[in-house]
Specification:
heterodimer, A: alpha+beta, four-stranded antiparallel beta sheet, 4 helices, 25% strand, elongated, B: alpha+beta, six-stranded mixed beta sheet, five-stranded mixed beta sheet, 16 strands, 27% strand, rod-shaped
């Protein structure tokens, strides 16, 4: 009998078993599946935080020379809760949509000039301390301040990077 | 001889069937695993985000003249809504654009879909702007369903500038000094207001704080005019009446001053006028100069003078001599960036929300 071009039952069974085994291994492997819209809430939070920092760095009218954010960093007045109340007020401002219980932790960074050009960090404020379990997003804003930063020899215009981590409770 | 080439054997059929059944089962199972990972939200969120960006960061199109100046019968010339004051100042919204955007002459959803939502799919939506200072909320759209795409943007609303001047200002700037030997001997008085377009544009380059009569209304209130009225000393003659005989608008091109318009729509003592001048005045005059009426004069960024002419009359209707609001010799009232003259544009906090489904 000519057997050219023929498949045997055992080969079909083998192929089927291999497929099943592969599928079993794939399903059994440790994989973190991310829903397609996971980045949306991050994006919404990031836009909101970025907007809030922009608003805080905008003077209310042309007769006010400095923005509230700039004044707070120049006067170190954020410890009194001014930054906290303003930022929380902006991010949790009225409206519908997802729940607004947004928490934050903020600081600013600057170059330690002219000492050693290292990056130093100054604390601003937070609504809650970070435990490490938060799913936070980071927003930043460069702010020009007229201030004698630690290590500086005189008062001058310096750029500081305000960084805010924010998350929903 | 029996030729078997090209025939299928029973053995092959069984093997291939087992293979196919296993393949179909695995394919079905694997795709089922992913079912809970799919999301119908993504598209709606993206549309809401895009709409939010257009509204908050774009001034709309046409830009010059701005789309908000188009009347209802020209609304088909508007190709894109946008609420930003200018593209150089994203996040700063124009109150006039907001008012026009929420105007009921635009029909929901058709007029909005083609100008701000875009896309071929007929999305439903709800757009709202809340001024956090005045707590005024304006919105357009449907009632929200259970599931929708959403974005919230924070912005500032630029309020219009205005000038309100009263007795202390008149005295400080000699606005009741006619310059004649006797201040009490004049029947006709003139008060000039200067809008220096070139300086308004040049002195403040940030569109967020700029005063531009070509795009935003400006308002000038003259209050307590009676306090400048001084007919006889002593006593003050209470019977003297003030009559505003006209408001001429002059535009300066080079060294030439030409009459561009006669202003017929002042507010006198809190009311708009319907008849032709002269208008009797008791105490207050307001000029609301909106971009549309300003553009009619083709003033552009030249010097524009609003010249108010007053007559003083006694009870019998005959002219009375006296001192009154008059800046012929003290110079025109300058509408500028001096906070003592003009209440500057203010930036109010606002929230813009877009939901799409």
């Amino acid at each position: 009998m000519n057997e050219r071009g023929q498949l045997y039952t055992i080969e079909g069974v083998a192929a089927g078993l291999i497929m099943l085994l592969t599928a079993y291994m794939i399903v059994g492997a440790t994989t973190v599946y991310t829903p397609g819209d996971a980045h949306i809430s991050d994006m919404q939070l990031e836009v909101l935080g970025s907007d809030a920092l922009t608003m805080m760095d905008t003077p209310a009218n042309s007769t006010v020379a400095e923005s509230p954010l700039r004044q707070m960093i120049e006067n170190d007045s954020y410890g009194g809760g001014q930054f906290k109340s303003m930022f929380m007020n902006y991010t949790n401002a009225s409206g519908y949509g997802p729940v607004h219980n947004i928490q934050f932790s903020a600081n600013y960074s600057y170059v330690n000039y002219p000492v050693d050009n290292s990056i130093q960090t100054g604390w601003i404020n937070s609504s809650r301390s970070l435990t490490g379990g938060e799913h936070a997003v980071r927003v930043t804003k460069w702010v020009i301040v007229y201030k004698q930063l630690p290590g500086d020899t005189k008062i001058e215009n310096r750029a500081v990077l305000v960084e805010v981590l924010l998350w929903r409770d | 001889m029996h030729d078997e080439a090209g025939n299928l054997s029973l053995d092959f059929l069984v093997g291939f069937t087992i293979f196919l059944l296993a393949f179909i089962w695995v394919a079905t199972m694997v795709s089922g695993i992913m079912v809970n990972l799919q999301s119908s939200h993504i598209d709606y969120d993206a549309v809401a985000y895009r709409t939010g960006v257009i509204l908050v960061e774009d001034p709309g199109w046409p830009a010059s003249p701005a789309w908000e100046l188009y009347g209802d019968n020209q609304k088909f010339s508007i190709s894109r809504f946008g609420l930003a004051v200018s593209k150089e100042s994203p996040g700063i919204l124009s109150q006039d654009k907001i008012n026009r955007f929420f105007c009921t002459s635009f029909i929901y959803p058709d007029d909005y879909q083609s100008r701000v939502i875009f896309g071929k799919y007929p999305y439903r939506f709800n757009i709202s702007v809340t001024d956090l200072t005045t707590l005024r909320n304006q919105s357009v759209g449907d009632v929200l369903p259970d599931e929708y795409g959403y974005i919230r943007r924070l912005a500032k609303i630029k309020t219009d500038s205005n000038a309100t001047i009263g007795p202390s200002y008149y005295i400080a700037h000699n606005y009741n000094n006619t310059g004649t030997p006797s201040d009490f001997n004049v029947t006709q008085h003139q008060f000039s207001i200067l809008i220096n377009g070139t300086r308004l544009l040049g002195d403040q380059r940030n569109p967020a704080y700029q005063i531009d009569p070509n795009t935003e209304p400006i308002m000038i209130n003259l209050t307590n005019l009676n306090s400048t009225l001084w007919v006889k000393r002593p006593p003050v003659n209470p019977a003297t009446k003030i009559s505003l005989t006209g408001i001429n608008v002059y535009v300066q091109h080079g060294n030439t001053l030409s009459l561009a318009n006669t202003w017929k729509i002042p507010y006198i003592d809190g009311k708009s006028v319907s008849q032709v001048p002269p208008w009797p005045v008791i105490d207050n005059i307001s000029l609301m100069i909106d971009p549309y009426n300003f553009s009619i004069m083709s003033a552009g960024y030249s010097n524009v003078y609003f010249n108010l002419t007053f007559n003083l009359m006694n009870n019998a209707g005959t002219s009375a001599n006296g001192s009154f609001l008059n800046n012929t010799f003290s110079g025109p009232f300058d509408y500028n960036y001096n906070g003592a003259n003009v209440t500057q544009p203010q930036l109010d906090d606002a929230v813009v929300e877009v939901a799409a489904w």
